[in-house]
Records
---
Amino acid sequence: MARLADYFVLVAFGPHPRGSGEGQGQILQRFPEKDWEDNPFPQGIELFCQPSGWQLCPERNPPTFFVAVLTDINSERHYCACLTFWEPAEPTQEAVCSEDAAGREEEAAEGGSGRLSPGTSGPPGQLFAPKTLVLVSRLDHVEVFRNSLGLIYTIHVEGLNVGLETVVGNLLTCTIPLAGGSQRTISLGAGDRQVIQTPLTDSLPISRCSVALLFRQLGITNVLSLFCAALTEHKVLFLSRSYQRLSDACRGLLALLFPLRYSFTYVPILPAQLLEVLSTPTPFIIGVNAAFQAETQELLDVIVADLDGGTVTVPECVHIPPLPEPLQSQTHSVLSMVLDPELELADLAFPPPTISSSSLKMQDKELRAVFLRLFAQLLQGYRWCLHMVRIHPEPVIRFHKAAFLGQRGLVEDDFLMKVLEGMAFAGFVSERGVPYRPTDLFDELVAHEVARMRADESHPQRVLRHVKELAEQLYKNENPYPAVAMHKVQRPGEASHLRRAPRPFPRLDEGMVQWIVDQATAKMQGAPPAVKAERRTTVPSGPPMTAILERSSGLHGNSARRLEVVRNCISYVFEGKMLEAKKLLPAVLRALKGRAARRCLAQELHLHVQQNRAVLDHQQFDFVVRMMNCCLQDCTSLDEHGIAAALLPLVTAFCRKLSPGVTQFAYSCVQEHVVWSTPQFWEAMFYGDVQTHIRALYLEPAEDRDPSQGWEEPAEEERSALDVASEQRRLWPMLSREKQQELVQKEESTVFSQAIHYANRMSYLLLPLDSSKSRLLRERAGLGDLESASNSLVTSSMAGSVAESYDTESGFEDAETCDVAGAVVRFINRFVDKVCTESGVTSDHLKGLHVMVPDIVQMHIETLEAVHRESKRLPPIQKPKLLRPHLLPGEECVLDGLRVYLLPDGREEGSGGSGGGPAVLPAEGAVFLTTYRVIFTGMPTDPLVGEQVVVRSFPVAALTKEKRITVSTPVEQIPQDGLHLRSCTFQLLKMAFDEEVGSENAELFRKQLHKLRYPLDVRTTFAFTQGAAHTPGRPPRATKDKGPSLRTLSRNLVKNAKRTMGRPHVTRKKYSPPGYEHRGQAPEDQEDEISVSEELEPGTLTPASALKPSDRMTMSSLVERACCRDYQRLGLGTLSSSLSRAKSEPFRISPVNRMYAICRSYPGLLIVPQSVQDNALQRVSRCYRQNRFPVVCWRSGRSKAVLLRSGGLHGKGVVGLFKAQNTPSPGQSQADSSSLEQEKYLQAVVSSMPRYADTSGRNTLSGFSSAHMGGHVPSPRARVTTLSNPMAASASRRTAPRGKWGSVRASGRSGGLGGDVGSRLAGRDMRGPPQANGAPPDSGFPRPQRAALYIIGDKAQFKGVRPDPLQQWALVPIEMFEARQVKASFKKLLKACVPGCQDFESGPTFLRSLEDSEWLTQIHKLLHVSVMVVELLDSGSSVLVSLEDGWDITTQVVSLVQLLSDPFYRTLEGFRLLVEKEWLSFGHRFSHRGAHTLAGQSSGFTPVFLQFLDCVHQVHLQFPMEFEFSPFYLKFLGYHHVSRRFRTFLLDSDYERIELGLLYEEKGERKGPQTCRSVWEYVDRLSKRTPVFYNYMYAPEDTEVLRPYSNVSNLKVWDFYTEETLAQGPPYDWELAQVSPEPPEEERPDGGAPQSRRRVVWPCYDSRPRAQPDAISRLLEELQRLETELGRPPERWKDNWDRVKAAQRLEGRPDGRGTPSSLLVSSVPHHRRSLGVYLQEGPVGSTLSLSLDSDQSSGSTTSGSRQAARRSTSTLYSQFQTAESENRSYEGTLYKKGAFMKPWKARWFVLDKTKHQLRYYDHRVDTEIKGVIDLAEVEAVVSGTPTMGAPKTVDEKAFFDVKTTRRVYNFCAQDVPSAQQWVDQIQSCLSDA
């Protein structure tokens, strides 16, 4: 029984001692006056009566009631029920407050006490003071308190005839039972009656309606957040204007936490004076009046729940971990079913009649039932993880947290981890862990209902039924007698507080109240204590735990097979079948990633231990240690799966004899794991073992087991330790005192002996084998810090090959100053202190232990010294010998092989993953560093794979990432230093250094690698040093030549350029353009070396005679460059001496930049409009970034539109250009001459286009429309209504994808440009309504014009620019990515294609990573813009691409445009020209973007060129028959543009190449064979030997303009990024790929035929195309083989191919009948280009056959009859003649003069009378024709004269000229007779014809 109320207190308003405006509470009376012994009077009650402060009020407020909670020093809660009413203030009280009336009124308003409208009662100015009746109780009966205090107030107000003293006395003496479901009727002696019910179980909280109200006020999500916050020990603050609501909310939150008890600060109502409590550092649940919300604003780590507003505010710095899934979502859905049952029916077509929702009290219990189920699911099986450390005299119980988390599969879960570490859970374990105690609803639920809850998970209705059942029980617990008689308590009348009270609340008679209390006390002492006996039982443990979510990992799906492998391997080891075991070992090591396999290993090893010892031989020991290390390497510091615990007894059991008397145990080889240095692990192990031994104490001997078997699951034991403990606790009271003492002694000695045992065990695993070195893992802390759970001491293991050099960077200082033994002793002592104190070991025993520990450690160190000494003498393990890699000519080894393991990475196939095949990786071998590459060669560690060689290499120059890692070696499973190298050629080397490689060697490797990757100067790269004898870093000496050598020439050129330019930015400032009258003269500072003719005619080059010799050489060299050859091919400019012919050309080749004075990054010769003078170009260039002014780079043969390129505009030029109106005033034009020049320049470009060169200079082509542009313009303005009807696309072309313009120009609205551009692009009148007959609309509307020139630029650079609508150029602003975005995107692409780690479970999938990289999006944008430009050029408008600095994205776009528009660039020769012209000559910064030198290291690798190649690859995929080169050619260039093997892609511009003397040296004559310096030369050489770069499907259409689809869905990931060949490494160094060893069966010594030609091709190991080449390559190889066998010199593959093609072409022609090569019949000709099969339409029907014609398909038009006739005759000849019997009437060497400005060259000439032609070759043995002169075109053969550059030693009469209809050929023979002979032969041939 307990008192209902402990104290009754009367508190009134009193003046503040310091005389401030506020008052304070004063206790007028308290009963009883002296404290109860068992319950002293709580202090500070007066603060809690008026939490907002004591203030006077201007009117009477109605009485208020609330319950505050005070917690005393013993954590007991006291409930203070406060009923407050107001009385007129006494004069003294008023006087106190009249001093500061204004302040008082403000405060009254703030305090919220003046809540009613002023219905004053009393004279004006009357004030009212609050008075509070307080009941203090330890019981929580809110309603009884409300009624009792209400009764006292009613008696006072209504003046009832009842003595207040009697009522108060009765109230204080009333006693009620604590629990057990009894009910008691009480009366306070005023004719009242109240019934009190006690709950059935004291442990279940009483919530009334508080939980339901909390959910109504805050909602499900917010309450769940608060629930998680309270459980994970965050600070929670409730705000409300109502005190009762604050109390209810706090009570509700506590009720939800059951069965955990909240043990931190709990103050449901906090008084204003104590607000500073909120800044306490400990967690709390506190309620505060909303009036003080402002004071809570600055609290940074408090979660604020506003009950009135329904919000929960979580600060940014606070992270509340959510419940683990699926519990979070399940709980949420069940809560919504309880709170809103109609939600399920809301969508039904025929909803049932409305369902009655539960009453508030019942709903409250249902909500609590949901949380009770949640806890049962969370903590299910917790009793299996309790360790009974002591049973007597009091139970000591510990919870094994790691095992619980591991077996539930929630190790990573933040929420459960924090809950288990919290104070509430510690209380839960000590309270509920006890095995023998009363049980309640939670115990039953967690023991018996778990299976039901699992089964119900997917059936919401069954879950709801279970919730309702639990709710019934909770309701019954609170209301055991539902049909209870109603209370009968008097209440005051309505508005009684407004009536004038007869008098103030009277002072009670203390004596009388005390007398009543004493009477009752005396009576109670006489009565026997009515104590209800507690029913104590053994607490049920429930079923063993299961994982919260069954995660079936696909990796270890077939576990039974894996376990079988583990068992077999162990039995082989112990039977001594080492070869068998070795074969299985890799599979075992893979299997040991799974938990089941690790358990199995521990169990199997246990079977081989007899009497705690198992002596093995060296090999067996090695295998066992290896498997143990593998098991332990994935253990976290917590050892949640108990693997380390299971292995702990084994590491001290397995041993080997090193020498007589010296034994090495396994523990000395498995120390390097984090788990051994974790205190929590040792504690859990210790408690587990103690429990086993204590259980054994009380079990019958028959039941006892070997205590070393304690690692087995408790489920397998007959009686658990908890059952034993429960039985013992039941018997304890019945035992005699002596027996009790004896049991306590036994238990203590058990704990003590275990502590000694563990001190030994810990010293075994913590002391390193070589204690002189404190070798530690670098990343981990030492043992110095007990609390850190991740400290590890690491020892040298694997005897015999121990790396001696380890840096000691962590944990300990140097070996001298550090004391390993001391650290270990401290660690063990801390452990012993902790466990012995917790286990109740006496202090004497503890002191004894502290004395023993240093001795134990010292003794162990001495033992280890002998072991270490002997282990050094063991023979080292035999390792496979290192394989040497094949090197290129000139490639030298920098660092010889370092032994490493190549580990598997994310490319699964290489490790035998999804691609099938055995696991080639991990492989054991060596890494070599050469001047060119990083190479790994080795063999797979898995012996089942066989003797395969694994090669993985990449050029040093391609290295993009180098990171140190610590990884486990695949064989020994020991953590070793490693390196992670990733290259931009999509190779990854993830290596672990072998132990024998010291850290110095590893560091040396890194340094050398870095030095080679980032050389100081480009001249020290492999491309320059290969095969050279000179020392690196010094350029080779040039040999002296007659005449100016190329190097002198380069030097002069550079010197002049430098003199001309000075420093570029200085020049830019100081340069003043000459006036118009001086335009013809050369600038003065150029006159030193270069003399320019006085009157330089625009459009011509200076005649040769006026140039100095060195200058002439420069010019002729420039003319030989790729650009110039291409310009002549396009007819863009001539270099002819005849001025008249040049005048008519619209463009000219200008040598203005030949000294690179205007723009360093441009080529020497540029195409500019004919009308622009050279000296104007200097001014134009200043408007553009990097001086890259617009120059022509291509002209369309059909529409004559030109493509120009430039850098982006400088701001100054833009403003001048576009803000000047059409007719600028003279003042304006002089203000900014350069922008005026710029305008003139663009005008000149427009005028030089034939169809726009109108007299007015304005565009007159108004009605022009494009077939491809019609329907794709967005309508950015309201006035643009519709598009007129677009013309249908021609049948031969694909229509462009829809929506093209919309997405390229992101919005089309910038600066009002969109409409103009749109209308121009459409080329239509867009304002008038279309006429019915397609005639132009009404002429009243102005007609928009298609612009002559479109300028495509960055959106940003055109901001605010509005060109005049009549201007001939239009701006197309587009948003393109920048180089840095390309860099970032490539980084992500590289990570996606070459992931560093193996499993994708942890990270995103390949496709997700690919999408995140946005690489394909960038490809899409490039193709999109290029197709747009192609459309514009095709429709006759010129385009200027002016993006960024003009060398990255501009280059990509213009190159793609030319490739798509001009079939020539799709040939091998054309593509080379394109790259040389646009990328090399126009200055793409290869060195800078490839980070080739130390200077570029910071900028990083930006693969702009690779991105262009990827775009070409995408086009190649869509049009496989349009390209002469194969996809391999693109990969080859992609690999070698970063490899630095060739000099081609090394520098940033032609200027730099000249400076290094690179540009022209290749033209010089070579003596003897040399390494290829140019990639093109290499391609040429290789193409002669093999068709690897040739595309057999090449069958172009001459006029074809390609329009590829560019949507991301049409793009494919380039296989260059994903494929690899481990058999030979990358296949792009052809010499290396060829030396692969032949399969062994081919070379049989007996000469017999091989038995089988079959070969297994492994994915990711072999290259499938090489193992099984395509049919054509195969046939060509077969032909060559047969020719060799027949003793005929083999022909080149190209000749064979051309001959076959010619035959096939003729075969398909004669009558169109079905030919053998007919493939398919179809009537869809227009889509054929992208299908990859050339469809040839015959005259009869439509027989479609595969055409192999590289010259011209039979369906396309011929270019002229003569050409066609000549081709057909030559074809006929070549068909009926073999190459060897080729008709050679006369042959010999002649010098031939090249075209204008080209030098004389010696060629081998063949006069063929049969074919009537004069052919010439490079050399006599060549079969590839360099050129043909058709004798039908020869007009005359005459004697000639020597010209510049002719051979000097030859007689003048040896020169002769052959004049044809097209040009004059100059020849020179060796001497005069042979010249005469040639002339005669040609004449006779002509006369025969």
---
Amino acid sequence: MSGRRKGGGRGNRKSAAGATAKYSDQPVSDDDELPIQSFDVSEKLRSKDFPRFFIRELTGQELTIEYLQKKGFTLPLFIREKGGLHMNMPDPVDFSIADVRSMVGGKRVIDVMNCATQHNSEMTMKEWEDFFTDPHRPDAKLNVLSLEFSHTKLDNYVSAPRVVRQIDWVDNVWPRHFKEDQDEATNAMNKMKYPKVQKYCLMSVAGCYTDFHIDFGGTSVWYHILKGQKVFWLIPPTDANLKAFEEWTLSGKQSDVFFGDVVEKCGRVILDRGNTLLIPSGWIHAVYTPRDSLVFGGNFLHSFSIEKQLRVAEIEEHTKVPHKFRFPFFTEMQWYALDKYVYALLGRSHLQVDDETRLRLFGDDYCQAEYRKQLEEQQHITPQELYGLKETVMFIHSLPVTRKCVPNLITDPVTLIKDIRTIITNHLKDNPSLAVTGRPLLYWTGIKQDKNLNLKMKNKARRDLKDEKPRIGERINCKSCAGCLVKECGKCPKCTSYPRKTCERRRCDSKVLAVNTICCLCGLDGWYAETSMTLITRPLETSNLMECAVCREISHPSCHTDYGLDGQISEVTPNTWFCPRCMKFNPPSEDELAAKLRRQDDIKKEEEEFVVHGRSDQPKSELRSALADQIMEAANKNKPLKTAAYIYRPPPFEDNLDEVYRRLRAAQEDGGGTTEVLIQERAVMLPVFQFLTTQEVARCSKVCRSWHRITLDPTLWSTVNLSKQKLSSTLLSVTVQKQPVKLILDWSNVGKQHLNWLLPRIPQTKELSLAGLDYYPTVASLNTCNTPLLQGLNLSHVSNLTDVSIHKLLSNPGDSRPGLLDKKTRLKNLKKLVLSGTEISDVTLRYITQYLPLISELNISNCWKLTDAGLAQLGAQDSPSVEALTSLNISSCRGITDSGIDHLKRCLNLTRLDTTHTQISTKALESFVTHSKHKLKVYGAVVDRKTSSKKSTKRKMSLKGSAAAVAASGPPLQAAKTAAAVATTETGNGGATGVPKWVYALAIGVPITAAMLYVLFGPDDGDNKDKKKKKKGGTSSGTSTPPVTPASTTPAPSTPAPKKGGGATETPSKQSPNKSDEIKTTETKAEPELPTDPLQRGIALKNRGNKFFRGGRYEQAIKCYSEAIEVCPTDKPTDLATFYQNRAAAYDQLEKLDCVLSDCDVALNLNNKYVKALDRRAKALRKQAQKIENFEIQVEKLRQCVEDITGVCLLEGFQKQEHLILVDQVLRELGRAEAALSSKTRIPILPSNHFISQYLESFAEDPIYKIIDKESEGDVDEKENGVELDLSGFNRAKQNLKEEKYENIIDDCTQEIEQNPDTSVGHLARLLRGTFYALRKQQNLAMDDLTVLIDGGDAVDAAVRVNALIKRASLYIQMCKDPKKDPELSLEDFGRAADIDPNNSDIYNHRGQVYLLLEEMNKSIVDFKRAVELNPNHPIAYAQKLYTDYRCAVMIGDMTKIHTVISDFYEAIEKYPKCVENYSLAAQVLNSQEQFKEADALYKKALEIDPNNANLMVHRGLMALQSRGDIAEGVRLMEKALEMDELCEFAYETLGTIEVQKGNLKRAIELYSKAIPLANTELEMAHLYGLKEAATAQITVSNKFGIDINQRGMPMM
């Protein structure tokens, strides 16, 4: 099929051109590209010298074994439609190159031939897909001809025509067990067990050409065109043509001579989509690709062209075709063919195989006996086979001894040759007509291997059951067809009987086999399992059992003997077929077969639907045109039309300004008002509506019909803002009708069902904002194939958005399946991504660089987990962000330092960088600016482009002047017309340009206002002479300099007003004509005199101070604010509060925090709801707290800060995200301070007995428990080192440990340590005391005890030291004093423990958990696996390993691995039925996969085993909230958990969180207060303190301001 592996032609040249050394991926035949030819292929396409010679056209039903036996296979066979060929092919509409890549693997390396250079190059399938699907790909003629995909996922979707499968020697001659044992998907010769040439995928771009060639080994070829078009030139293999071809090949002039012109006759055939072509052996052919094509095909040797196959092999030898381009194992195949004929005609085989292989090849003794009975009748063979056998013997005889290649399985080749001579002698006079049997002669009679079953068990069951009479299987209702779904009548006898039976109205049309039906050959059910096995899902529609319609035998198709024919499956009755035995020995008639297979009368052709198929990157205009063509074609046929699948946004309206002008003039002439005309004109009102919000536009649409028509303009709906809205079905439907480009759903009640309905219906949306929502119930819906191709996505402040969540969103959609046009993530085109305020870490940035190659704007501010390592991902050399990233916001990421900036220097196009509130210094930013090729500047903590003051000033002046010039030129109505035209030109399609909106307002408003004033109040034309003249340099009448107002920030310079009637503006004669000089003169004017009114004077002073403040002159600003405070009347508290707040802002810039707090206090006393003052004071208090080391003062300051910032949030209605972020940060700091303060006076409390027992059980190699176990067996001496154990305090401690009396263990151990500090018993007592110190949250004391044991050296038993090292390593992680050093110290201790005892499973079990916390999944998996290997009977380690496997599978999006892990969990539960950890972790996995029922069932089973496990009950409560939103049930289960264990901190915290969401803040504070003493670490305490303080602050502030927080919709802070 490929020019790379052919019997002549360009074989030598290709090998010299750089073919790979191994056989891998060598194709069958097709378009091989040539070097530059001197002849024009397009001319050969148009030439009439190549008619449709030699082609024989058949239907699929006509192409059978009987046809080949009768007519032979000497001419190319053309089949227009694949019906009747019994071949499997993917859907040509849905299948694409992306599906090929998905099924064979994106990393599969393939050979690609370049037509221009005739050189091979290697590409991965991913790279080939990108090239093939690129609409702007380079003009390179590339061809993939060598992708053999057997044993890949694609293998299941493609099969050759049935007649090919019946005659193919690879299937019927080559020992079948070799092929069944093949597990290598590539074509590596050293791993190939059979000739892998049966299935090829050929992908060619338009214009590829393959010169004339013969397929390697004389193989025949089958092609099926799935997509595109092919043109074949065909030349028959006559002796003259073969000789000419050999000479042409050796001449080296292939590029100059078109071989079709050399021979006498050359035919040409064109293959379109859906056509199939079979080319016989030895035919010389060339191929051209007019259009991009996707073709499936394969090569095969067979018995009807043996002579030609051997002739081509000789030509390959003469033309020196390299062996890697020839048919693999060609000579060995000839030997196996001879042996197969001996077995088929004489009943004996020369293959020496073991008994199991013999069963697989020939079946058991019964099958072989049955086969020999058939040989008793005279067998006839065709003349082609007879002469082929002769030629095969001669071919082998002519080979040198070293190249006869006798297979290892044939130990006596001489006897085999003698048997062949016997066959030839016996069949010389065979009647050719009797050889036409319609059945293949060569086939394997053994059992096909099924890897799911044991072969010997199958054959044993078969022998046991072979004598039983076949019985008809019991059939039951399918419960899914239309008949089963009929509503019960409730009146018939069956409905009213007891027990109740199936209603008479319900009549199943597709009855299926019962669940307990078994195979008569292997004895297993339809799911290959014993009927007694449980925990197996058995959907009725997936049963693999088949009942034969003739013999009524029920069996698996894989259990049947291979009779050379396939069974025919019925499409009418489920689980029904004609088995292969009946098809061969008792075949049904054609009418019976057609009636059983398909009810032609009952199947009606469905009406055609309007479907448009295209690529994901195809312009929507092309899709619309295609859809319109389909609709118009259907309309011409008088067919009922169907609506389009999606609503497309109509194009924008075009204004006819001449009509507007005409209506305006008509209204003026009629004496009517023009205002009514203007407010109904689209050109006038549309720019006005563009300033309104979505809700306001919707209200305007209800005013009148004119406005309703205007609001239908799509430019008004390019952005739909539904933030903080309660979404309804009506609102969602309207949104779909508008087809917005940008959709905002921030902080709304949108849920998963809403998004699942909405996303497929807004395919044109490019930007989506889901800020403030929750990941699991809402945002997770984006991981679907229905998501539009977004370019902007806002996920800021999305709760539960972690690295795993980001990976799920960016990985392939979960509903991806074969046949989709694009199965990659639908977010791959994102250019702008906002993730601020989420829980992502550095891992997310790695995912962004992997999955988002076009990302240009990235906002990751307020992500506290981010560090410099994350920025290193963005600046990696192979990262696409190096070229694409232009804007990055990392503000409030405290973990980022100057080192991170060094990584960002590699981002070549990064022009904006926000580093506010990070640890990055100004020096580092200046270094970044220096290294950048762009003109950048540092503005505080922000790096941005430099702005040109002259250009911006000139642009503003020109824009301001444009509207005035329009208004001042010509008659007013002409000015209105011109201004409307200017506005329409500038706004274009909805004002999508970068011009500010105020320009539109000036361009429209000023001219129209002038026109209205002129029409209503202006004089006639004759009155222009009586106009009053203006004074030189003055202003027109009726205008005056506006007074200074509090809102003013700078004194407004007076500007000359234009003359009435459109005259030019008068300017002073000394004024410079240069505009820049005019601006400078204006800016250097003296300050205006201060008003005499005290309040106005104070406001003027404040404005002057504002000017100084903006210029950075804070001392002068403070002086102005102070003067304003002095002159301001005391009866103006609001203004006075403003002055104090402004002065506090100036003090804040000078870091005078005491003055800031003093002024803010005064401002708030004057106006207690002054938001700016509250905000200022909160930030000042936080700065003071950060500089104070005394925890008590720090807590006091931060607590006041939390109250202030909470007040700000309440007064603003929780609208500003920066304040919500600030309150979250302050709460974290307050929690840490309170935790550090309370830990000093904390009362030690032991957790519940259940918790302690679970903790101790996690150590399988604990030396103390080993002693207890030995004592229970009576194997311990009464004395050790001269100390009587039964009199020691340690002995009492052990007894208390057995009886779970944990309160006195520390005292008992202390007594033992004081008496025997340096003995082995003393060491054990110290280890036990350190363990319980850790359980009592006295980590420092625990650390001291464990360190003493670790530093004791060899004097301390190795097992004790290892256990102490493990526990100290875990303590480092729990205490978390230094997030950077503690993991290093922990892993160092684990390493020391492994050096002492490398076979201790506890080391790897607990280190694996630490790696899991550090999110180092691969290391965690290795450790858990090692722990299981060392201690297979420790179920906890095995459960942790499975859970880590699941986490890793989730991260990489491996759904197969996820299902495997779930299955392994069930096996673990069966193996360790008493291990609660298996149930708990398995339930958590199922819960995360949204299999809530299965998860709840496991939690219930776990509670049956361990009724006192309160954590299991809490998990059930959380699942009730997550799955059903049932708050009452969740609270009930958690309260039940507290009844089981009153020391369950997890339950208190979770209940408190629920109470906060319900608005019961006092109850939440009580619950948090109970949880704090039970926290294990300071970090957990800090978290709980933060939650408690948030609730307390909200109560305090709401009481202070009299605000009902429940009505404000308070979010959880």
